[in-house]
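Long-time lurker. I teach an intro course on protein structure, and each term I like to show students one example going from raw sequence to a predicted 3D structure in token notation. This year I'd like something fresh instead of my usual example. Would anyone be willing to generate the tokens for the chain below so I can use it in lecture? Attribution to the forum is fine with me.
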Amino acid sequence: MSAYLTLIRPPNTIMIGLAVIIGEVIAIAPKLPGIQAALFGFLTASLMMAGTMVANDVYDIEIDRVNSPQRPLPSGIVKSREAIILAAVLSAAAIGFSAFLGLWTFLIAVLALALMVYYNTRGKKTGLIGNAVVSFNVALPFFYGGLAVNSIRPLLFIFSVVAFLANFGREIAKGIADVKGDSIRQVRTLAVIRGPRSAALASSGLFVAAVLLSFLPPFLENVSRLYFPPVIAADIGFLYSAYRLVSNQSSENVRAVKGHVLVWMLLGLVGFLLGGAALL
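-- Reply from a regular --
Happy to contribute to a lecture. Here you go:
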């Protein structure tokens, strides 16, 4: 069970499911989404993420033999065939739940799945394009949440862009830690092509851009004052992570930064929720 949980990465899958619910809440505030919309929206995003995470590990098994040999697939704890079946079941379930919410949510879910299949089979080797594809899917849940409740607000687009920039920076940073295995498989990450320091500078620049954009919502829509404490805390965290990346590109430091960035993104989610829905 522990090995399968490692494959699906619960923190990532839960966060992206929560992002859909937050998108729904923001979209129809001061009302609250119905239980069905919230549950099916959460399951669509979280199961989709879980399935694509497992599929990603299947395609990355040779890279992980170098970068992370302790992971379930390269270590042999989980067989590739079992992982493929798990990825297919999770993805099919996600598409099924999206269909219960309507035609547009179904089509968006199919698009998201298609993009992740492209990423796993071809897009990852393109480097920045692949990073952008993953980040687009991470930013999509806010918009998806609006579609699930038939309401789109400008805040959803702003929060989506902030999430895109933050995750784009994290994806580029991941390439620094994985540069050895990526070089063997000819994955053209920025760290492989331009070197770890250039990748660290690019990643840090995206974090800073996300921080700057986080101050835009109050100028476009009314947001609660509760928006600011968690978002400012997240912004400070992103700036700290940017500093750490620029000052030290060792694999150990980059992996630590990757984990920290997930915490900053979670704080940002809390701020988005409080800012867009605390007027309830």
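Some talking points for your students: Residues 154-280 form a domain with the Four Helix Bundle (Hemerythrin (Met), subunit A) fold (CATH 1.20.120.1780). The chain has 15 helices and no strands.
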